[in-house]
Amino acid sequence: MSRFATLTRPALAALVVAGLLAGCAPRNGQSSYSAHDVGVASVVKFGTVLAARQVEINHENTGTGAAAGGLAGAVAGANIGSGNGQLVGLLGGLIVGAVAGAVAEQELNDRVGIEYTITVTDGTTLTIVQEQAQGDVVFQPGASVMVQTRGTYNRVLPSSHLPDTIAKPKDVKIAP
Q1: What is the pLDDT of residue 103?
Q2: pTM across the whole model
Q3: Average pLDDT of the segment spanning 153-170
Q4: What average pLDDT does range 52-68 have in this prediction?
Q5: Cβ 124 vs Cβ 33: under 8 Å
Q6: Are 41 and 103 in contact (CB under 8 A)?
Q7: What is the DSSP string of 21-78?
Q8: Measured distance CA(72)–CA(95) in Å, rounded
């Protein structure tokens, strides 16, 4: 007999919901890249942080939590009573489960971020909101940073590991 054979339907449904919701929580930070970012060039500008403040980043619900919660609630509610009572239990479980699933998905997806105000070397001042993963550096006012840009996506990264001055790269000439 498998270990899942002893689980009740509601407990099994709750495990399914938890598994589905766990997949809804992407994590991005200063040291994390998507597979789509590999091999793609980004423009880098250097600047100084003027201000940094913590913000909440609210992600949009996909509906997965509500659907999974509704399914789990319907399965659990269907085990209550018999006849019309079973139907009422199923519908009640569906509604309560859908609401609980939507709330759980939102809680799993919302993040803490930092809004940086940065003046870059060309004199432009930018504000960039970025997710703050555990272990990421929070840049304080006065910190030298690099702003990495690809399309409309921007990321604030440390620049302390880079040299202050470099020689102009040599041109490569092609002989006739």
Answers
A1: 64
A2: 0.54
A3: 86
A4: 75
A5: no
A6: no
A7: HHTT-----TT---GGGTT---EEEEEEEEEEEEEEE-PPP-SHHHHHHHHHHHHHHH
A8: 10
| Amino acid sitting at position 47 | G
Joined together, the tokens standing for residue 130 give: 């970025």
Of 32, 107, 25, 103, the residue nearest 68 (C-alpha): 103
What is the spatial distance between Cα 40 and Cα 31, in angstroms, rounded to a whole number? 16
Q: Which of 64, 63, 57, 65 is nearest to 110 (CA)?
A: 57
Spatial distance between the Cα atoms of 110 and 102, rounded to a whole number of angstroms: 12
Here the tokens at position 92 are 């009640």
Q: Which ranges of 23-173 would DSSP assign to H, the alpha helix?
A: 64-78, 84-109
- List CB contacts of 129: < 8 A, sequence separation 6 or more: 55, 57, 113, 114, 115, 116
Tell me how crowded residue 95 is: count the other CB atoms within 10 A of its CB: 15
Per the structure block, which two tokens stand in for 18?
């938890």
Higher pLDDT among residues 24 and 34, named by residue: 34
Query: Rounded to an integer, what distance in angstroms lies between the CA atom of residue 29 and that of residue 146?
Result: 15
How far apart, in whole angstroms, are the C-alpha atoms of residue 79 and residue 93? Answer: 10
Nearest to 111, CA basis, from 25, 19, 20, 23: 25
